[in-house]
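call fold(seq) -> tokens
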Amino acid sequence: MNTHLSESLDGVEVMKGAAQEGSEVDRFVSNARRVRDAFVRQGDLEGKYIAMLILGMAYAGGLVHALLLFRAGTIDLGAVVGYFGLLRLLEFPTFTSTWAYSLISSGFSSSRRILELINSETYLDQNASGLTSNMRGEVEFRGVSFAYPSGEPVVQDISFKIKQGQTVAIVGQTGAGKTSLAKLINRTYDVTAGQVLIDGVDAREWNLAALRSQISIIEQDIFLFSRSLSNNIAFGKPDATREEVIAASVASQAHDFIQGFDQQYDTVVGERGVTLSGGQRQRIALARAFLTDPRILVLDDSTSAIDSATEDKIQRAISNAARGRTTFIITHRLSQIRWADLIIVMRKGRIAAIGTHDELMKTSEAYSRIFRE
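ret:
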């Protein structure tokens, strides 16, 4: 019931846009009814709890026994009252055991779900003793393949080498494996075959924290925390000064709209940045990346929600930020593809073509088709 309610609140715009408020209310009422029925069943089980039956039998047996002793003259009336009063002392622990029985049963049910999550293992090795040096930004894929645990390979036999400071555009149709390829660089996923080399060293031989701290990925679906804009920008570098935060926001073209808020950089955004527009969220994410000064920058369609005028400004900012660092751009925007040093065309998880824009326009039908479309 709570999960459904939380989901409905998160998706309230979609729900209202589709005029489905009534059906969602009906679903909540249905779930609430199931919760009520569960509590009724719980009460029924507690009512059949054997301890309560034994307590009643103890009362009856004790009273009969006391009366028989009183009739035989063995005890007086005060002893009968005292004896039955002692039996009543069993009432509290019996009721407590009933409550504990219910609580323990609920605890077992909840702990089973929690422990299932806690005990789930990841096969991603943190490699705490791995390489921690400063990264130059050379990236090489050698015969890389990757498949999700329960699916077909999404990336197959990928090989290419990127020099330090180069800008690479990865293009292809939806589902071609572009994002999965990018996430192999910072070991969000581990390759199932082949090697991803960073500065000539297998990514798995790097200390995972050191590797990821020098690689920044900006995705299309931007996640912002319910914190101030300043804290969101400085998330990857908590000790950043206000001047550094402002410089990063200026570079990402976010400073002007932040200045328009009443509390400026101290403005608290809603959950997932719901109080900001899509373009504003993406500029905050760009500022976050610029502040950490990564050696490798991955932009996964990160300007999709930005208007053309702002995109020109951000394009210049990205161009400046890309100097001296290796940049991967996953995009369908022709303005970003053209100025890349190298273009990789993906098709069904494989490299269909690789080269510069001019070369591919002449030699690759797949690329020229994408470019024409």
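The longest strand covers residues 153-162.
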